[in-house]
Amino acid sequence: MKNIIEQIQFLHNSDNILDYRNKFSDLKKNITKKEVIYFCGNSLGLKPKSTNQYIIDELNDWQDLGVEGHFKKSKPWVSFHEKASLMLAHLIMAEPSEITVMNSLSVNLHLLMVSFYRPTPKKYKILIEKGAFPSDQYIVDSQAKFHGYNPQNAIIEIENSLKNGVFTTEDIINSILKNKDEIAIILLGAVNYYTGQVLDLKKISSVAKDNNITIGFDLAHAIGNIHLKMSEYDIDFATWCSYKYLNAGPGGVSGVYINKKHFLDSQIPRFEGWWGCKADQRFEMKKTFEPAFGADAWQLSNVPVFSIASLEASLDIFNAVGMPLLIKKSILMHKILRQGLEWCKANYENSNFEIITPKEDGSFGCQISILVTKNGRKLYDYLHSNSIIVDWRNPNVIRLAPVPLYNTFDEIGRFLKVFKKYFELK
Ligand SMILES: Cc1ncc(COP(=O)(O)O)c(C=O)c1O
């Protein structure tokens, strides 16, 4: 372990984006008097210090302008989401018109299913990974029911051939090919919430397209975590939340990506609302709906200004640092943390855990999930009582997510010292 701690010290000293840590709030030392190590950005990202001001600016405009705020000179509320859409497009390498910001993730998944799940008597099945996030499972089940199908028959779950919920790309491709004549749509989590596994979006979407199948991704655990390059994949749609790696705060507004190839397809059904009209017509109260160009046509309600202001605060930080540097640090963090965990496993007979996140390049992001075979909750409580915030997912997984934007290598070193001690004490 000494050698690993030395490597960590070296990485800490050569971390050229370490200063970004200061842009995020420190958690109150509310658990013990010790400093908190927060490895939970996969669940709820830390608050940027700047967020207050972004929200206060809008509060002040509300205070000073009232309803006129919709048409104020700078960032009018009538088109308030557009700046965030622009920054998100940059972040995930999409075109700005392919992005919109609205609602929350589960709501958007349903709205996108309205547009992209168009079952026919022969092709009506929905392909989803086994062990998908529960909300995604409820969404596909209820969508199948809504269209008059029995989910038992209409939902195909991809089985994983590797243990502990990890898939090979072949598992997914084989399942697509085996059922291709019946699948209407594929919906997958780009990064699995439980295992932290990153899927090969390019390969999987190209197989879907070769077989004429609509494919969409839930990017909840991917955006701000892995380097998404939407322009390089043939994905029909995607959506995400912004409270995890995007640090927009609890319940933060969701985002949507719709591939531009669908913009002129009048066959695609869509639920419509007044905010989906062209920006300059939103207050014209016309009887007929004239859709905005691109993903904005999927908007329904006027946008949540404070929530988007909060998202902008974080996106401005992402913009300043850029994904390439974050990814470089993320990989180093992941590898050194894994090395430390593996060391514990090899050196303590009582270390009853295994790392379930795959280790091949490209198959992991920030998160490392450890499956604790016995008394997992005890380990989780021990970490918690030592001011280490990680999260627990039933039945037996602890998720650790050092986030390159605000976590430090030094924190990984301190975490490992506490973690190691647990097995010495037992
Ligand atoms: C993968 C995934 N999908 C869907 C959701 C549901 O998100 P929301 O509550 O914002 O609808 C979550 C929430 O954590 C998630 O992790």
What is the CATH domain class of the largest domain? Alpha Beta
Strand content: 5-15%
The secondary-structure class comes to alpha/beta
The rounded Rg comes to 22 Å
What does this structure look like?
The chain is of the alpha/beta class and 426 residues long. The chain is globular, with a radius of gyration of 22 Å. It has twelve helices and 13 strands. The chain has helices spanning 2-13, 51-65, 81-92, 105-116, 134-146, 151-154, 169-179, 201-210, 305-321, 323-347, 376-385, 409-425, and strands at residues 37-38, 99-101, 125-129, 155-158, 183-189, 214-218, 237-240, 255-258, 353-355, 368-372, 388-389, 391-393, 397-400. The model has no long low-confidence stretch (mean pLDDT 95). It folds into two domains: 2-48 and 322-425, Aspartate Aminotransferase, domain 1; 53-319, Aspartate Aminotransferase, domain 2 (3-Layer(aba) Sandwich). Helix 2 (51-65) runs antiparallel to helix 9. The structure holds pyridoxal-5'-phosphate.
Please write out the topology.
Blueprint: H1 2-13, E1 37-38, H2 51-65, H3 81-92, E2 99-101, H4 105-116, E3 125-129, H5 134-146, H6 151-154, E4 155-158, H7 169-179, E5 183-189, H8 201-210, E6 214-218, E7 237-240, E8 255-258, H9 305-321, H10 323-347, E9 353-355, E10 368-372, H11 376-385, E11 388-389, E12 391-393, E13 397-400, H12 409-425
The structure holds pyridoxal-5'-phosphate (PLP).
Pyridoxal-5'-phosphate is lined by residues 104-106, 133, 135-136, 189, 193, 218, 220-221, 241.
